[in-house]
Write a structure and sequence with these properties.
The protein is mostly helical and 127 residues long. It has 4 helices and 2 strands; from the N terminus they run ββαααα. The chain is flat.
Length: 127
């Protein structure tokens, strides 16, 4: 397995996990933003090792999403304090406009019916 990280500088205060615990794995204040060049051949790993790899990547993905959400929220608060206004459109009207414009139909064709059905399990019907 080869992981090529892409790092980006965090805002002052660095990255924190939910609950306010600092990311002790990255004392320089950088976050692993993306992994590239990762190649795992699942057929070549024993089932127990593959389960460990999958579980740990899944756990890391959940933590990364929480980190990014916290960073987004803090950025929005910082920009609001500096005078920027964030619009909050009505989601029902916004979705209706996307339907009318053919947005969802286009992406359904792009991703195919199987992937689209999985998406709609979480979002409800989009087209």
């Amino acid at each position: 397995m080869r992981i090529t990280p892409v790092r980006r500088k965090l805002p002052p205060g660095g990255l924190t996990r939910p609950g306010g615990k600092n990311n002790e794995n990255d004392p320089q204040g950088f976050a692993w933003a993306r992994f590239g060049g990762l190649s795992i051949d699942g057929a070549s790993l024993p089932a127990d090792l593959l389960e460990i790899v999958n579980r740990n990547f899944d756990e890391a993905a959940i933590k990364e999403r929480a980190d990014l959400l916290a960073m987004d929220r803090s950025l929005q608060a910082d920009l609001t304090a500096k005078g920027m206004t964030f619009n909050k459109p009505d989601p029902v009207r916004f979705r209706a406009a996307l339907v009318k414009a053919g947005f969802y139909t286009q992406w359904q064709k792009t991703y195919g019916s199987e992937a689209w059905a999985r998406l709609e399990q979480y979002t409800g019907r989009l087209t």
